[in-house]
Every structure is written in structure tokens, then in C-alpha cells.
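Assess this one:
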Amino acid sequence: MDEVLTIDGAVKAPARLTMADLAALDARHQVADVSTLDPKRAGSAVRLQGLLERVGATSDVRWLTLHAALDDFHASIPLEAVRERGVLIYALQGAPLPRQAGGPFRFFIPDFAACHTHEIDECANVKFVDRIELSADRGVDNRPHDGAQHEALHRREASS
């Protein structure tokens, strides 16, 4: 069964997209090799702007909330800070992005520190994404709030 990405919320055309659907989005939004954005990353991706165009984000959208049901992780970030930078990695070597690489879909912000906002941190690069929600107000966000929580999260990830 193909993994499905749901994009909903304040959009004109909610969507449920498979890897093939993402690969079929306009070529100007495709990133064939994510390592061109960050040499530590691999895979094929689509730019966030292409996803926003696909669903028709409404004019009042200010927040992008990334949901990952697999590990019950949610990050709500200001849309304008990532609109031009964010990508969604959906494939690795022509196959669906595997779980060990953060699949089915992984949101990635190259050089996240350049966003110049405290809401964008390393944990805004969300693994296991299965839903993107657009909204006027901040959505669910259970990212760590301090250094100790952040360290604990990464220790749990390393042991699983």
C-alpha cells in the first residue's frame, strides 16, 4: 500500500498525495537530489511552495503544522519563515523514503538557522510526516522547549 500525505486545513483543495503524486508535481518545484541543498541529506523532494500551490492555501494562512502519527510528534512553524526554503523529501533512489530515513515523508529546512526565528529549530525538520495542516493560528506543537528535553528526545530516537 502506498503511503499517503494529507494536506488540509485552510486550503481550497485538500489533498491526499502519494509518492507518485508528489513526483508528478511541476518540475520547477522538484529537487532531484537533496544533497545539493545539504550534503548530509539524500533523496528526492518537492519544494513547500509547490505543495502550497497544489492545495491552494488560503490568504489567511500563517502557520504550517507538521504531523507525524508514527511517533506522535507535531511541530507548528510560521509559514513565511519556511515558504521559500522548506522541502518535503519523498523518495530515496527512486523508491519510497524508508522509515530509517524518516519516511514516508520528511520535512526538511536547509540551513534552518537562517530563518531567523526562534520557532524554527532542528526539530522543525520533522520525520515520519503524514499530514500537513495549514492554519491562521498556531497548531499543535509538542517539540522540546529546553535543552534537556531536546537531549532526551534525541536519546530516545537513538535508542529506537
User: Anything to note?
Assistant: The mean pLDDT is 87.
